[in-house]
Amino acid sequence: MIVVGGEQLDMFATTPGPRARRADPITSQNAAARMAKWWATQAGQVLRELIRGGPGNGHQLARRLGPGWTNVKVCRRLSDLSRQQLVRHTGQVSDEGHQWSATAKGLARVGDL
Fold first, then answer.
1. CA–centroid distance for 45 within its chain
2. Phi and psi (nearest 5°) for 13?
3. Could you list the residue range(s) of the whole structural domain that residue 17 is in?
4. pLDDT of 99-112, one tens digit each?
């Protein structure tokens, strides 16, 4: 668990993302905390959609998530979630890409989102 700018970051604290060193000014620490929350919110939305709507590829998930979501944005979050073992490829591939689904670890984490 990491505390940045006086706030505790939990679920996605171990993933790549905005960070501030302890020696950085408080404004930098606060900015890192805001960006980490923003990142976690996007990843959380992708994970929740996989659990709610079932498996999908980046294009399908972007359409399901709605305005502001693109295949590129979704795939970046899927890659981050995959490194955490929260999602995995299903083994199915279409013209639009690999199908993804939530793992048991991802299903267990959804309560934290």
1. 7
2. -65, -20
3. 2-112
4. 999 999 999 876 55
